[in-house]
Amino acid sequence: MSARERRQAASDAGLSRKRVVAEAVRLADREGVGELSMRQLARALGAGAMSLYYYVANREDLLDAMIDVVFEEIELPPEQSDWQSAMRRRAVSARQVLARHPWAIGLMESRTSPGPANLRHREAVTACLRKAGFPVLMATHANWLLDSYVYGFALQEASLPFDTADELADMTEEVFLPQLPPDEFPYLNESAAVLAAAGYDPAEEFTFGLDLVLAALEPLRTAT
Questions:
Q1: Enclosing domain of residue 36
Q2: Distance of CA 184 to the CA centre of its chain
Q3: pLDDT, tens digit, for every residue of 118-144?
């Protein structure tokens, strides 16, 4: 099919780059990015597979655009806030976005042709740290540490076999505690019982760890 024919087919199907990428994100959210193919995407859009290539050059171009959508959803660090508050809001927003798009966690740092939202996000984060007084190298250290924490937590959270504190409590009583006889695992048994009774919510661990990271970085702002 010629470029003109692909363009006409795409027009007939009411396609646009934005619509193609949005549908790809929806499919990845539902089924994972590993199963996403141009043929599957075309079927979901009710179009011919070749017509998609008028809007995305190949699968890598599609992934670049999909990751750009994810970065677009993450709140930029507010310019008028102190650096810790700004980076905390950005980190909390990133965690929420990655919970909606868990397929993206392993791709956030893999793109060699970043889109505009990706670049705007990185510029804003770097600017926040530099304006706070972090030298270039220390700002890079801080950025790597914060991203590693956010991505690592998001990855771990996505793999948990429960979604809420109530579900965890039920699983602890019905599944975990029977596997932890107190004579063999006294500390694990005690921890599981106490946390279940207290309504422990692992989701709260994110801000606990994030505050520790931010506090540890504060003295390094003026380090040389």
A1: 3-56
A2: 39
A3: 999 999 999 999 999 999 999 999 999
